[in-house]
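Board notes, transcribed. Complex of a protein with adenosine-5'-triphosphate.
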Amino acid sequence: MTNYKIAVIPGDGIGHEIVPAGLEVLLAAGKKYGYSLDTENFSYGAGYYLKHGKFMPEDGLEKLKAFDAVFFGSVGLPGVDDTLPAKDYTFKVRTSFQQYVNYRPVRVYPGVTSPLRSTTPFDFVVVRENTEGEFVQIGNQYLPDEENGMGVDTSIFTRKGIERIAHYAFQLARKRRKKVTHVTKSNTLINSLSYWDRVIKEVAAQYPDVAHDQMYIDNASASFVLKPEVFDVVLTTNLFGDILSDLGGAIMGSLGLGGAGNINPEKDFPSMFEPIHGSAPDIAGQNIANPLGQIWSGVLMLEHLGEHEAAAGIMAAVDRTTTGGVLSADLGGTAKTDEIAQAVIANL
Ligand code: ATP
Ligand code: MG
């Protein structure tokens, strides 16, 4: 039986409810599919910041390095300023551990009504570049006075950064329906994003068996709503991927349904699995948060670890759960967070 070392970081808000729910499902699946998890809890996050003045201890990253993966909820509390990069747990882990792939799948859950009128099923993955681009947090605010103030952020795209995410997307497409749509806005961001386009096209030429097209972010956003079935692998930058994956959550029916992986494909560092949504302080502490995005994140973690049968088994159990009408409040149901986890376990 393979044993995996998993760092568990609930973070803040609903993380304290959905992470334990997700973990229970992963542990139950381990008994059935023959793996075990050796877990250790870490209290990093905005709650930690309120006590210690930082989001994690100095040796926080060093400690996480020893694990096979990180199972994470979300960080953030009202009243804790999350605009200072030094405080941002998520940003630090993603960049330090070279988790340059943010893998965010979007699909129709059976039994869940999408807000889209069309009933054509969709099933695609947003591959978001996760370490550079618009989120490098380099810039400044010049505030000589109210009138002459100015804010500057710099986007950085490197050949290495674009090539590696592009190769990941094209290789992923080979295992799926063999289509990559890359999304930029190079007609207006004419320096940074036309460079992105150029490098993507060079990589695309190395995958003649994969269809490749390009969309601008405005058109892609509209297409997510009007014809999401045209997508297979959506390859995009950090900022656009952030926005598109919330939209992906919305067309599934709720942000609470979206799972994600921050992946270091080379496995030089642990990868981190977290839902697409935030810590939802507005509904925290009530046992009403939807745990399915967290559970799906756990499924992506199992896939990364090579436990494919267990991953498929949990997703089938999730489908039986939603088909059976066990739905949380965000989906119009009455099931509580822990009840949904128990229903998934019963359906395993
Ligand atoms: P972040 O900046 O961390 O992404 P955010 O400001 O985008 O956070 P979220 O915490 O994602 O905000 O919450 C957005 C809305 O979605 C809130 O109304 C929240 O209650 C709802 N929401 C988020 N996650 C869930 C969930 N798992 N179940 C139910 N509702 C959720
Ligand atoms: Mg958000």
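DSSP finds eleven helices and twelve strands in the chain. The chain has a mean pLDDT of 94.
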